[in-house]
Give the backbone structure.
Amino acid sequence: MVETGARLQITPYGAPALRALEAMVAVRKAGDPLRPVTVVMPSSLAALTVRRSLARDGLVATEFLTLPALAPRVAAQRLAAGAARPLSALEARLTVRAVLADTPSRLSELRHHPETLAALVDTFAELRALTASELAALAAGSHRAAEVVDLYRAYRRAVGERADDHDALVAAAAAVRDDDHLRDEIGDVVLHLPRRLGRAELDLLAAFAGRDRLAAIVGDSTIADQLSPLLGAAATPTDAAASAAVEPCIICAPDPAEEARVAVRIVLEHLEAGVPADRIAIVSRVAQPYSLLVHEELDAAGIEHSAPAPVRLAQSIAGRSLLGLLRWPINGHRRDELMRLLRSAPIRDPAGGATRPDRWDRVARNAGVVGGLDQWHRRLDEAARSRLERVKATLSGAAEPTLPLDGEPVEADARAAEIDALRSFVDRLAAATDPTDKRGWRSLSRWAETLLVRHIGNEGAALSWSDADQRARAAVIDLLQQLGALDGLGPEPDVETFIRLLAHELDRPAGRVGRFGRGVFVGRLVDAVGADLDLVIVLGAAEGMFPPRSRDDALLPERERRAAGGALRARGATYEEEERDARAVLAAASNAVLTYPASDPRGQRQLQPSAFVLHQAGERVHVDSFEWWLASGRAAATPSEFDLRELLRARAAGHPVDALPIAATAGIDRGLTAAAARADGAFGEWSGLVGRWPHLADDLQHPRSPTGLQQWATCPFSYFLGRVLGLRELEDPGDAETITPMDRGSLVHAVLEQFFRQRLGRDVDAEWMPADYDELLAVADDIEGVFRARGLTGRPLLWKAEWAALRRHLRKILDADGSDPRLVGVAPAEVELAFGFEGEPTPPVQIDLGEGRVLNFGGRVDRIDRSPDGKRLVVLDYKTGSAYHYAVIDADHQDHDIVARGQLLQLPIYALAARAQFPDAETAEAYYWFIGQRGGIQMKGGPVDDDARDRFQSVVGTIVEGIEDGLFPARPGPDEWRPNIGPTHSNCLYCEFDGLCSSTRGEQWLSVRTRPEIGEYVELAEG
Ligand code: SF4
């Protein structure tokens, strides 16, 4: 039996409260169905669901509203008569900014921080209900509190007559007290399951109560205590059975993503059982990450729903385009930012033509562009110039001689046109995004709107976007127009302040997806308080999230709030209030599910159920894996889950899953086959044996560089990825503080080339004289000037110091040249000898592989020295890197191998090229000359005699046969452990495919290395 006489009733949440409401509305109608009654609900969802429930019995003249919606309606006439313009949230924040600029305060420094403005607006809203004496008491609490109160008073003066939410409540209370012709429209008010009530709200309710037009149903004695002064003592329910609460099903899932999947599967089961979608809600105490996860799962399952938009306005197409365009010049015209913007939004080139972020990014990276307009110009111009030179020199086929599938095909020179197109686009965009000297809301907003529309198109162009993005576009334009109307409100912003405040305003959810009231509701836990549902699922009930950890208010901490004598409440909800909300929500439906995650993947930590969960009675279910649900025969929610369920069933029945038709239609058959083959240790197409292909056969016509063969000798799979499939990591030029190692090497090479070219055939006994050193530095200075002019030397001050050190080092190189015993008795006879290139007179080095096959090598020898009688040659290859991995090629090394197991092939090739150039020579030695600034100047190498040539020829034969036979197993090399990297393998340390390769590469190599097919390779690499 429901108590109907008392104006204030306490009932349990859920069905008992709904029955009490129905009875109370009936009492208020007093037998006249047309008598108006307004029911004030705690949320829009509660208003909608309860109205639908009660309307089933033919309820008329009864309106369901929230309190924030009721107040302006009651006060509408008074607010209009007072001509008080409403104060928007945006105006409130900018008024605070103006006050901070005008009022000397420690907080004034923070006026450019949008978060500070928002926090002050919230605090000022709390202070609105305080009397003058309460404000004075608060100000007396501390210096900081006094500052906040002073700012508040200044803010109120600045706001003047404009009306805020508090004004609406006050005006509404006055209207009710004066009985402003509202009785016919509003009628009696029934307050249903209110949450915490503020002072102004209680005033409005008191006005209704004073006219005997208020009744209330509450679910908790704390709220009853707030209302009993207005409505008299609360009556309690007399029907004990009615208060029996539904016990929720409590589910522990591995992580939030699995919670969302489980929730959607449960929803699907209820939908199949006939529960309408609009009587189901999935809610959580914290929005992140649940709103997005649940929305995505519902989408995948094809279930109609209404949820917070998965992105914020700043992340929508219009939002990110606008911020990207505005920030590009502010952040220094960075290449990575521009390319990110072009890839993430449909940015148009207003001059016509499409933008090509992928190609342009490649062009800009290759040109070494990092940022800065000047750098864009210089480096793109330089790239265009060198491209032109390359085309003229017709070197395209010979610059990096390769195997047939090696490297890029010869292309018509479209790249020069790409460079041109990119340069023009960058210039146009830089001009369009330059705000020049614009200031002020109106000027900056108009400019920003024009910029946006010109680059993303008008409304018509947005028709192909998703609904959410179209709505977001309208909201972004609306925001710009609101900002444009704010001139006169505080100091006029410069462009940086404008962008900062704009970014803050865009950092809010881009509305909702789906239509509110249609389909499953997804939202916050408090949205479901007082609702009437068939199924409610509460996610995220883990310790620390339910409720979230509270932090003290930085502006008015708890201690100072208490000092104000109770006029100000604690910030946020108390634990009791949180618990009351959760109980109310679980009682809102005949079926309730409460879930919590066992771990937080983002924080990489385990989670515990919250205390609220521990105190709940109900069935407990532990979901221990992604498969668990499906393996136990429950419903699949999404198409991919249907597929997975079929696979699980087949596996359980002992059928080979890769043979199922579903494996082919889902596109996982090849993946399953590959995984199975690798797990079995088979040596086949999935583990590096692709067999003989015509493409792999060496046509032996094109000269090749030795680097590809060296790569195969080190790890055949890296050769396959890089040379056969043509994969390569894109260079990402950093913001060069100083010269790159590659450019430093080129500079030293160029200096030595020019210096020694001028001294070809010099007297072998002549010592280097001071004039030679001076000449060396003069040559160096000339070449350094060219590098500096091309912008390759980094920041001027740093480079100045580095160049001084490098000049000193060049002198040391000349010292070493004059003192190394291996260079005694010889003098430079050739520098930069190119062989095997198209257009070069020197033919390729040819290696006879037998059976009529000949391999041609091309390359460039840095320097060849010769004895006066021409019988002895010394070949030098300059290296500016480390000598660490070259020890084994040195003639003095105990395991000397001139080709380092095939991983260093250059010296024999260069020695053979030198012998071809100087056929009278009887001996040839070849050395890598390490002339870098680190590790000392040293030579590694030795004589290239008949034994060395035989070794070289045999190794090259093994490599070529391996490639032709299609042998490409991954050989990661010995295990290594490196600080900051951890366990790795020696070959993978600097391999560009490290992130691409299987994590089981080490085990895979061990399982195939004994196969006879690769016996010769294993002997070469490890034997
Ligand atoms: S990451 Fe290691 S195993 Fe993989 S291709 Fe590179 S070197 Fe070979």
User: Anything to note?
Assistant: The first strand starts at residue 8 and ends at 10. The longest helix spans residues 796-819. The pocket of iron/sulfur cluster is lined by residues 715, 717-718, 970, 972, 985, 987-988, 991, 993-994, 997, 1001 (CB under 6 Å). The radius of gyration is 39 Å.
